[in-house]
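Session log. Operator J.P. requested a structure for one protein chain; no other inputs attached. Running the standard single-chain path with token output.
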Amino acid sequence: MRSRRWRRLISAWWGGCLGLASLLPLRAADELSVTFTPAFVSHYMDRGVRVGDAAFQPDIAVVGERFVAGLWSNFPLADSPEDRSDIELDFYVATPLKLSESMTLVPTVSWYHYPDADLSAGSYRNAIEPSLGLEWSLGGVLITPRFYYDFMLNGPTWELSAAYALALPALGTELNFAATLGTFTWHDAVRDAASRVTNRGDYWLVGASVPFTFSTRSTITLGVAYAERFQQHLRAGWRSARKRTERRGARCRHAQLRDHILAS
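Structure written below.
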């Protein structure tokens, strides 16, 4: 059963990679490049909540002069009852628009696919989430307000992020700091529920990473992050279901990786 699941996912992942590769002949004049990032994480975090334990999260991105198209994936490595994560395939396309020397508008569309989603439990197998971000470089700090809207969960997410790179010339690298503050309201948190279930919450994240360059084409990055979700409310109709605060160790998901590709 487990082997069939992995075979199906590996086939789907390679199918997505081939789909991205099909873009190359269409925009050859744009001097396209391909970035592959095989990432291993201790915990899979999503907007302040620990979704799963150890996971392999590869990302492949096709980068052109006017767009980035990529496939980010999550493959759970842990096999425990506490691991709630499933295999996940996230396709995204971003088209950065430079407004000035210090400002860039970044519209993005993401399609999330969960092949093993339990539909009978109210989970979604697919979701589409466009977003719009404004990257503003101010005194060496990259500030990014961003708005998302999930059409399946039927609700927005608002985020404010900041990033700063501290040069370490003695080591030939830099120390990258990142922080995010976000809030979301999803009005259809449970698929096909008898009454509408609204999920609302706030979250924050801080992290640091250090990249080590081995050649002009390869870099390894070591990072750590901490995330917390607070003031979470689940409401069925007009009745409050619960309120809770969760504190977990964390890692950023593919949005931060995509931002790094755009900024490089």
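Operator note: Residues 2-21 form the longest helix (20 residues).
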